[in-house]
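Case study 2.
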Amino acid sequence: MLDRHWRFLCGNAAVQRVFGSVQARQSCLDGFLGAGGPHDVLTEWDAMAPSLVAEFRAEAARYPDDPAFAEIITKLSRRSAEFARLWSLHEVRDTALGVKAVHHPEAGRLVFDRTTVQIADHAELRVVLLLPTAGTGTRERLDALAPAGSG
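Prediction:
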């Protein structure tokens, strides 16, 4: 689950198995800062970064009076030439569906269909569902990672 600024709030055990240690309030945009962590496993970061910035622009537009968006954008623009370049394109994309590919150190390449859902009564919260993409062997490799008895 993410907040309106795309900071991680909570997740299940599978999140930790796939992405490693994800810290509370760690941002999905931290990959632009070379911050390490979960972004290190995103094998297609360069390909997904433009979409990520365009989607974040759409999210920021929903909250024009929220100063935290301006702070995040300023920080990222100052510390990441890539983010600044992508932000300057002014692209806006609002999509709830996508594909996310991850390189896991033990399981190898994992591919997920991503669905993002906003909670009607709490529009500032986003639940991100990652389902193994059929035909990629992802489900079988995830099952092999699962601790005994976790089903």
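The mean pLDDT is 88.
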